[in-house]
Specification:
The protein is built from two helices and no strands. It is mainly alpha-helical and about 90 residues long. The longest helix is centred in the last third of the chain and has 32 residues. The termini are far apart.
């Protein structure tokens, strides 16, 4: 028997357990959000914000997210119209 402290290796004792189905779903969701944040930073320049204050930053991020989602919806609608025409 070996005694280990949880603080020594928190990855060994986590909830949900690594490798389980629930952990994989959570990890997939997290990696999806991280990719989206990276895209927002790269293409909408959220990593180069020059305004100060959390309220102004919140407004900038919200406008960027609305812009991104509107563009995505327009692209999906265009693809659906192209499929109907074909």
């Amino acid at each position: 028997m070996v005694r280990l402290k949880i603080t020594e290796n928190p990855r060994l004792f986590c909830c949900p357990h690594r490798g389980s189905e629930k952990w994989q779903k959570t990890y997939n969701r997290r990696s999806s959000i991280e990719r989206w944040f990276g895209l927002l930073k790269e293409h909408l320049f959220l990593d180069k914000m020059t305004r100060r204050g959390i309220d102004k930053a919140f407004v900038d991020v919200t406008i960027s997210m609305i812009t991104f989602l509107a563009g995505t919806l327009a692209q999906l609608k265009q693809e659906q119209q192209n499929q109907k025409a074909a």
